[in-house]
Write the structure tokens for this entry.
Amino acid sequence: MFPLQFFVRAFNSSTSLPPPLAVENGRHRFHFLLPSPSPSISRNSPILTKAKLGISRFTVPFPHKPQSSSAPISRRRHLQIPNVTSSPATSTSRFGPHDRRKGSDVLVEALEREGVTVIFAYPAPRRRRSTSLSRAPTQSATFSPATSRAAPSPPRAMPEPPETPESALPPPAPASPIWSPASPTPSWTACHVDDIPRIVKEAFFIARSGRPGPVLIDIPKDILQQTTIPKWEQPMLLGGYLSRLPKPPSEVLLKKMIILISESKKPVLYVGGGCLNSSEELRKFVELTGIPVASTLMGLGCFPGSDENLGLQMLGMHGTVYANYAVNESLLEAFASRAKIIHIDIDSTEIGKNKQPHLSICADIKLALQGLNSILLSKHDPNNKNTTDFSPWRDELKKQKAKHPLSYNTSGDGSAISPQQAIQLLDELTGGNVIITTGVGQHQMWAAQFYKFNRPRQWLTSGGLGAMGFGLPAAIGAAVAKPDAVVVDIDGDGSFMMNVQELATVRVENLPIKMMVLNNQHLGMVVQWEDFCCDSNRGDSYLGNSSSSSEIFPDLMKFAEGCDIPAARVTEREELKGAIKQMLDTPGAYLLDVIIPHQEHVLPMIPIGGTFEHVITHQDRGG
């Protein structure tokens, strides 16, 4: 399990605050923004209970009637679901069953019952540590202007967001919705201490079910100070939420899909991050059909990247030539105008959003693949499983792989280090068996291209959200969640500097994170676009010291030294492999500053508005 994310924030009840924001990291995502002590809110203050789900989630009919925090709660009738629980209660309470306790103690035990084991806490006034939750992943933050920048808002309006469950507890908000309709985040405000057990259970259930995503819980300070005897067996009041969850896919639709596949000559599977929990089913389906597999950026690892026969790696602007060729030529799953498109998605609002499919199936992909595999196995002789022989199509793609392999310049600039080579060597020295995190920029694309991800969830990146500075905090979360795994943050100097202060966290928590920074002294992706579109005119994309361009500035080695983290710098190609090996072999945290030329471009590249025919596969080095 990946860590939950927990935010704690102080507030002033008379101040209008910006909406709390959320962090994406790992498989499950839960934020709790708790108020630190500040001027008390009147117990008679009207506090609204809100629940607003966005377009891509399902509406839960919670009441919006103001209630006194100390008065009996009057609610409209809901569909009660007494037999549904979010997770088994495995914690041991520090209180007797009939002991009164504060709302804050109820909250702690509610989190324990949900399996929370680690909390990242930010110092706050008079904050007390829970002994049983002292190692529990979540993050806390007192309120300040920086709080709203502690994490990006939950992304849903982007090509493919990280889909991670998450809960947040912010300070009280005005009567207007906590989130706009563009940010589909389910949210609640606890208006009585007795609501806490139910609300926490509902939040975790919704965050984990359907399409995983963020939820937000607002618990005002005075509610946390009230006392109660908690009722842990309260039913969840989820209204029509469960009725809107995707049902198992229709066998009729699955059989129709198999017919379309059997009629195709050049099918392609295009898998995204929603398939991460269905990797085994996907691999079985590919084994039964022999269909090549291309991936989105977030889908890397769903299918083995080292599979040279059926794997096409990443599709898209910086995807492989042969993946984009396959989509261009495909007569079934593709974006090509002549293609027949089958779209399976757990979220009905995603279907047809970019291109109208010929056949759509709203279902959990795991259930859909299980159904497809069952049908295929029942129809075929074990010794001859393929309905259609796609070997000519695979042979055609092999020729494209031979003609347009992923490659890079190994002869120019003398002894200069190729960033692609650095990632290839990392893949070679680790056997493709580490967790990789990235920031945003050229290094992110090179990592996606040249590291072979063979299993789900060893690739943590912010996807279409484009959050620079994501790599190091993501590595911290992964290292806490998987203490026995090797975690490597492949970063760029520009992205790394956006959260460089977290080196202190790495050292204080003794996290064995390896940081390999591809340092070109520039915002590399910006430079690349300046080269393509602006005749290499630089618009503040140089990050070094203009008065002394020969020096490395800022000096990442000194940042590491200041946090007592071992570090090294490598500038020569011949020394690169040894430097990476030293990084991996050194116990604990380690920073490797890899100096690379800023002229290097991420290729292949399909220009914006272009097609496969416009793909750029080589470059003329600019300034």
